[in-house]
Amino acid sequence: AVQIATEALDRLRSTADAHHRVMLLEVMGRNSGWIATYAGMANGADAIIIQAMPGDAISVLRGMNQIGYKAQILGHLGFGETGTLGAAKELSEGVVTLVSHDLSKKSALGFVEKYKKRTGVTMEAWGRPMQGYDSVMMLAEALRRAKLDKTKLKEAIESIKGYKPVSGTTKNVVNFGPKDHDGNQDEGPVLVKIVKGNWVTIE
């Protein structure tokens, strides 16, 4: 699989150079992104985009560091976890990743502090406990609007507009509707770069 991906990159590189274009190659993978990593390293890719779970993300970073490979890493999921930052330390320096929540918000900071005080655990960047809290708060509001009538609950949830989640970014609000049961907004995730073990927002 790595050989085939590398050969495909070889073909794309010549085309990209000839037409002055940026080319992307998507390869199969699951938890760690080793195929993308090895193929990108073999071909000298300018950047490698990896979706990895926390433990696998650290393994990928360690492997690239050991051979001195310096391509830009664009990470997702596992690269945005506070646990990954703490364990990877200097290995994660310069990685660009997405985080779902702005932990600098006053509401988020307050929640994180209370969560750590009660559980002794530092919450990860994806803020699942905050997501759970927001879900319960929106459900409670829907129940209030429906006056506990379960037949009206769906309609009540769809009527929720402008909810400002404790877990969202400074711009993020949740708007539901008859055709939108997800409620997420495009401006929700924040693009950050890891600098000295901290997230620095990329404007």
Number of E-state strands: 5
Share of residues in strands: 5-15%
Order of helices and strands: HHEHEHEHHHEE
Low-confidence regions: none
Query: Which structural category fits the helices and strands?
Result: alpha/beta
The general outline is globular
Distance between the termini: 36 Å
Radius of gyration: 21 Å
Can you give the mean pLDDT?
Answer: 77
How many alpha or pi helices? Answer: 7
Question: What do you see in this structure?
Answer:
This protein is an alpha/beta fold. The chain is 43% helix and 13% strand. The chain is built from seven helices and five strands. The protein has a five-stranded mixed sheet.
Q: How is this structure best summarized?
A:
The chain is an alpha/beta fold. It contains seven helices and five strands, in the order ααβαβαβαααββ. Helix 1 crosses helix 2 and helix 3 (54-66) runs parallel beside helix 4.
